[in-house]
Design goal:
Shape: globular
Radius of gyration: 17 Å
CATH superfamily: NADH Oxidase
CATH topology: NADH Oxidase
Largest sheet: 4 strands, antiparallel
Strand order of the largest sheet: 1-2-4-3
Structural class: alpha+beta
Number of helices: 7
Distance between the termini: 24 Å
CATH class: Alpha Beta
Helix content: 40-55%
CATH architecture: 3-Layer(aba) Sandwich
Bound molecules: flavin mononucleotide
Length: about 190
């Protein structure tokens, strides 16, 4: 009884290779509508979605965000970022950054739920996506905040980025499912 919704949930994978053209406007609007329809604490909807499709800006932001991996305390992140060809945005043609008012009840949960809705909506349209944590890591530093401002990426007042993902048409085959842990469930009663 795996209906279409269930199949979309199972199909969603992190796509890391993209064609250069961004999703069509009508597809983007559907993705954003899915995000807006996520649950939020007390229905505050304290979120804001910043979409970047300007390719020159995207590449500048990508280079800046890579420095967050290069300077990370996590050795694995430093190692992958040190590879010349490594791109934190996988050369994707579009990024969506979900920011939310940091004084809201649960901005991180609200933002993450909105993003998951967007990832699933994108999947249902055959659009690939991948969470890009470097955005949050980079913006967490003072230098990161300054560079976002310098690049003209201004978030609403009191907003922090809590979720970011790149989107685009996959350049290759849809990814295989990485291993899932079947032992992550306890049912009581
Ligand atoms: C909080 C979070 C941070 C992530 N950060 C990154 C990232 O920076 N780069 C990346 O390629 N994938 C990132 N991912 C994607 C995970 O690597 C991916 O979801 C996981 O390997 C499972 O694969 P799947 O999404 O294809 O099911 C992140 C996922 C989450 C939930």
């Amino acid at each position: 009884m795996k209906n279409e919704t269930f199949q979309t949930i199972l199909k969603r994978r992190s796509v890391r290779s993209f064609l250069p053209e961004p999703p069509k406007q009508e597809e983007l609007e559907l993705i954003l509508e899915a995000g807006r329809n996520a649950p939020s604490a007390m229905n505050q909807q304290a979120w804001h979605f910043t979409v970047i499709r300007d390719q020159a800006l995207l590449r500048k932001l990508e280079t800046a965000c890579k420095s967050a991996f290069l300077e990370s305390t996590i050795e694995y992140l430093r190692e992958i970022a040190a590879q010349e060809s490594f791109s934190v945005f996988y050369h994707a043609p579009m990024i969506v950054i979900v920011t939310a008012d940091r004084t809201a009840i649960a901005p991180q949960y609200d933002s993450t739920l909105a993003m998951e809705n967007m990832l699933l909506a994108a999947t249902s349209l055959g659009i690939g996506s991948c969470w890009t944590h470097a955005v949050m890591m980079f913006h967490a530093s003072e230098r990161g905040k300054e560079i976002f401002r310098e690049l003209g990426i201004d978030f609403p007042e009191n907003h922090e980025p809590y979720a970011a993902a790149v989107f685009g048409y996959p350049a290759g085959p849809w990814p295989e499912t990485p291993p899932r842990n079947p032992d992550c469930v306890t049912i009581i009663g």
